[in-house]
Amino acid sequence: MKFCTHCGGSLRHAIPEGDDRLRHICDACGIVHYLNPKVIAGCIPVWEDRVLLCRRAIEPRLGYWTLPAGFMELGETLAEAARREAREEANVEVELGPLYTLFSLPHISQVYAFFRARMLEERFSAGAESLEARLFGEAEIPWDELSFDTVRRSLRLFFTDLRNGGGFVFRMEDIGPDAWKRRGEEIG
Amino acid sequence: MKFCTHCGGSLRHAIPEGDDRLRHICDACGIVHYLNPKVIAGCIPVWEDRVLLCRRAIEPRLGYWTLPAGFMELGETLAEAARREAREEANVEVELGPLYTLFSLPHISQVYAFFRARMLEERFSAGAESLEARLFGEAEIPWDELSFDTVRRSLRLFFTDLRNGGGFVFRMEDIGPDAWKRRGEEIG
Hints:
The structure is a homodimer.
Chain A lengths: L10 E4 L8 E4 L5 E2 L4 E10 L2 E7 L8 E2 L2 E3 L6 H13 L3 E12 L4 E10 L10 E7 L12 H15 L7 E4 L4 H5 L5
Parallel strand pairs in A: 4-9, 8-11
Antiparallel strand pairs in A: 1-2, 2-3, 4-5, 4-7, 5-6, 5-10, 8-9
């Protein structure tokens, strides 16, 4: 951030009066520009005992498998964002269940929210940002080719809860930069 | 948004190729500037059967009572943001419990998250952004002088759960612009 979005003036990196953090302040018009974490919303689309994954056609993690998810847009609810992403990435219509996982990723300033979801019919295809879309049973999940820790962790929890009789419990967790290595393969 | 933060060029309001929404695009360097919802994190600080509220010293809703909460900062987890806000607004140290409420407010592009919290000691005072801080039992809550629907709704749910034996359940809800009127006073 170098220039003011409001007046085009140069931005200075300084702590505003009454604040305690460095912000981008405009020398010309005085406006303070705040940067805040972004929210990613997605879902776990389920058909019978299988889960729908998409192979990413875009960076980051091009070629890796992911749950349909993406940046929440202005004017949306979390649920609307999750449903839209399922539609965009996998051309699938889902009925959302309860929120299932909520992650803070402070090292990249993101908050991830995944809902459980029921596919309305066994009908889907790769959206513009996906190379392919496919249903996976637990034994088929490409654990080493998943896109993000949030996806890996949500799938681990989901199949564990499913095996334990389907008593799905909402989880809120924090994920650091080396979460996968620290957790160990067994808990995802 | 009129100018590019990267090069200072003029921004155009248009739909980028492969997108389906109006974005701010820089005519000079081509960068697309995305705007996304913001996250507000807070908590319900509890001492015995009373809840700590702060009277706002800043707009919006100056003079109204609120739960300590504020915009999540870069590099924070939801829990860290909630604890920091309790410290900043009420000079109170809390031990956070589970996440209690999560609201989408699409009309103002915000996501609100409130944790339950236990005050570590009966010690608090008004922070820089508060006129005063005070503990309230359910009968004393100034329902008509609360700052935001998210605060009112969280407190309603909290005291209802408390009266029903303390079986606190996580809730995710959407709140529209006229939520209070639509819901009616009895459910907050």
